[in-house]
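To illustrate the input format used throughout this study, we show a single complete record. The first block contains the structure-token representation of the backbone; no residue identities are included at this stage. The design step must infer an amino acid for every position from geometry alone.
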């Protein structure tokens, strides 16, 4: 697998504004935010796509989603709400082939997305 921009962020080659980190995940602000709060959460063990989680240990996947939920709480989004988005593949517009969850909040989010 070639290094993606998120591999470079994870090992410090590209600086980011980190909002949370533990042994499983890194959470940082998106460089091109689509909402007042837009944070990306990536697992430290790389999957390229969400589709691969069907073959990953469920404990690892569970810790990833627990971390996403925890980051949203840290960001103060629990009361007013937020959206978690994972783009998988070209039709969804996935640009970076490294699994990542978007946390979007701080404004009313339209549904369904375009
Ligand atoms: P995708 O379309 O793959 O789901 O989302 C990729 C996200 O990564 C985009 O929202 C984009 O703005 C963000 N992104 C791309 N390059 C960088 C970068 O170098 N730093 C940060 N913080 N975010 C990035």
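Output of the design step:
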């Amino acid at each position: 697998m070639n290094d993606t921009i998120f591999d470079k962020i994870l090992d410090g080659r590209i600086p980011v504004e980190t909002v949370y980190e533990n042994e499983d995940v890194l959470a940082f602000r998106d460089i091109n935010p689509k909402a007042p709060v837009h944070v990306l959460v990536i697992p430290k063990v790389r999957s390229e796509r969400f589709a691969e989680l069907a073959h990953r240990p469920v404990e690892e996947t569970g810790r990833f989603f627990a971390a996403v939920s925890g980051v949203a709480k840290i960001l103060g989004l629990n009361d007013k709400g937020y959206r978690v988005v994972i783009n998988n593949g070209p039709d969804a517009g996935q640009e970076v082939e490294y699994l990542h969850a978007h946390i979007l909040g701080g404004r009313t989010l339209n549904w369904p997305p375009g």
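Structural context for interpreting the output: Strands lie at 18-21, 25-29, 37-43, 82-85, 101-105. Residues 5-105 form a domain with the HIT family, subunit A fold (CATH 3.30.428.10).
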